[in-house]
Amino acid sequence: MGKLNSRLLAGPYIIWMALFTVIPLCLVVYNAFTNTGGTFTLENVASIFDPVNSKPLWLSFKMSLVVTAVCFLLSFPLAMVLWKYSKNKNSLIVMVFILPMWMNFMLRTLAWRLILLNNGFLNHALVLAGLNPVYLMNTKAAIILGTAYDYFPFMLLPIYNALVKIDKDIINAAKDLGATGFVILKRIILPLSLPGIVSGITMVFVPSISEFVIADMLGGGKVYLIGNVIEQAFNSGYADIHLGSGLSLSLMGIIVISMLVYRFFDKGEEGSGIW
Amino acid sequence: MKHILLKKLAAVVLCLAMLSNLVSCGKGTKEKEKNQIIVFNYGDYIERDVLEQFEAETGIKVIYEEFLTPEAMYTKYKNGTVKYDLICCSEYMLDKMIKDGEAREIDTSTMEHAKNIGDRFWQIARNFDTENKYIVPYFWGTVGILYNTSMVDFVPDSWNVLWDSRFKNNIIMQNSVRDSFIPPLVLDGQSINTTDEKVLRKALGRLQEQKELVQSYLVDEVRDDMANEQAALAVIYSGEASLAHEYNEDLEYVVPDEGSNLWMDSWIIPKNGSNYDGAVKFLDFLCREDIAQQNFEYVYYSTPNEAVLNNIDEEEKEEDSAIFPEEDVLGRCEIFTYLGTEAEELYNRLWKELKVY
After folding, report:
1. Which of A185, B62, B110, B258 has the fewest Cβ atoms within 10 angstroms?
2. What pTM was computed for the model?
């Protein structure tokens, strides 16, 4: 009876997953390996090597590496500060950094657009301060900024969670034994927070590599990422869902492979969840 | 987070699909079908009061639906759950539908007010509806250059201005394949409907060369960015240009001397519609002078309805050259036609080559 009950409880989610994850994934695989006539082809999957597709892929890869690095460099020191000064996980100071996540990410990106525009808030402020205006809008820098801002909490929270789990006694013991702050950071804090860092990097790098909305909104259509290529394949006047599916599948494959490689070097480490 | 967003989106789409299913099931009986028409149009592209007036006058109920892009319309139409009686869309999509045999002939001789549509517009329609059998013009316009008179001290009446390095980082282009190919093709003296790869490659070369001068490639934001003085020049549709001028008096619109594109949104009766008579009645109603007038004042795009045009005083016409272009503009503009899948594929390919350049 109890077994049946728990199965029933899982029911809604299984239906949900089947409808919105498994079936769509099957459709993507089917479309990727067929052409408009319905016959088998490898052309769509292989088209990732076509320069018009591989160039955006390489650019996406480089940009999400930068985004991940920016997120990490901002998050780690901040997580340390939060860890030191907040008494518990739900303190106000942590809230402040999660708060932006309560807002739709489109709105947040739209706000960045208004800030970065050639005569937007940023340049008004710069001119008022007697400085030269900067033209960030429609550049790669703007997209990196917007993406890093959007994914920042996904880096911060896992690292923070990993830090919170560190027993302060260990650090006190190290101090007693004469360890300097740098040694404590290098030999204790970094290794112990590694699971959080790994999970943070995964959660920022993977979604940001297929980013296209931010590129559209802050890049002014001048920066063309693999996400834009796929979106165009599905959405433009000349829609080719087979090509779009093929590219999606290749991208998925590349992400899975890079994750496997990445996990290989982090063997034995378990990712820590965000919450 | 994006995953959740996508899933939610999928759920909404599914719900909508179910809903539209329910709707189409509900109106199963023959009796009901006789007394209603289902109309499919671009968003915010009709004066809503006109619909009520039509219902009151004829007793025919109007079920009115809207779409965002011609492609979205076509997907939904092809899906077939809803049997539309009337669809309004861009000429290249209607061209495709006519070529695919999706359109039903409209007997305009039974329409009392069809004569209000000027001869020159029937003539333009002949570019894709060769015998004027399938479509009735609704609104039209041009593609041209919107410029800020405080930043550009001359009238940019040539597409060449878009390659002028003085305006580096001050040019906004349309973020759509065929629209962005208009300037280079026209400058080369080619048809904007060309499918010749050599010609198109040359045009692509010009666009790639232009890319470093371009501030951004946009669609919906062109008007607002120009009104906010983000850029000096933009390629834009005439209807949008007129609105932009309302927001910012410094903005003026010009159709370059070399020529441009003329677009004409028109009505078509799909062959699987169930109320042909009702649809024709509605079309006739839209052509009627008073209704067309109301509708024009709301939509404020160029109207092909001569009866309405005659009512507008010369002063207003002179003030808004985007909506009331001079006679010769029509002569130097070319309408888009449907180019077929192969050419679409080529255009798409070239577009990507521009984007990765």
Report:
1. B110
2. 0.83
Nearest residue to A162 via CA among A188, A183, A182? A188
For residue B272, being part of any structural domain is answered with yes
Contact B274, B33 (CB under 8 A): yes
Catalogue all structural domains in chain A, each as residue range(s) with its CATH number. Answer: 52-225+251-265 (1.10.3720.10)
Report how many Cβ contacts below 8 Å link chain A to chain B.
77
- The confidence score (pLDDT) of residue A88 equals 65
Q: Provide, as residue numbers in chain B, all residues whose Cβ is less than 8 Å from the Cβ of A207.
A: 1-2
Total structural domains within chain B: 2
Give the nearest partner residue to B230 out of A53, A118, A221, using CB atoms: A118
ipTM above 0.85, yes or no: no
Q: Which CATH number is B53's domain given? A: 3.40.190.10
Find the domain containing B319 and state its range: 35-140+264-325
Residue B93, number of CB atoms within 10 A of its CB: 22
The minimal CB distance from B345 to the residues A55, A232, A238 is found for A238
B284 Cβ neighbours under 8 A, 6+ residues apart: B110, B111, B112, B113, B114
In a domain, B167, yes or no: yes
Smallest Cβ distance to A52: which of B10, B216, B356? B356
Whether pLDDT at A271 is above 50? no
Considering the domain boundaries, does residue B27 fall inside one?
no
Residue contact A51–B356, C-beta within 8 A: yes
Q: Do A19 and B71 touch (CB under 8 A)?
A: no
Chain B contact for A207 (CB, 8 A cutoff): yes
Considering the domain architecture, whether residues B146 and B289 belong to the same structural domain is answered as no
User: Residue B141: which of B11, B288, B12, B300 has the closest Cα?
Assistant: B300
**Do B270 and B258 share a domain, yes or no?**
no
Q: Using the beta-carbon criterion (under 8 Å), do A19 and B345 form an inter-chain contact?
A: no
Q: Which stretch of A98-102, A173-177, B22-26 has the lowest confidence by average pLDDT?
A: B22-26
Q: Are residues B343 and B198 in the same domain?
A: yes
Closest-CA residue of A relative to B70 is A237
Give tens-digit pLDDT for A228-251.
Answer: 999 888 876 666 889 999 999 999
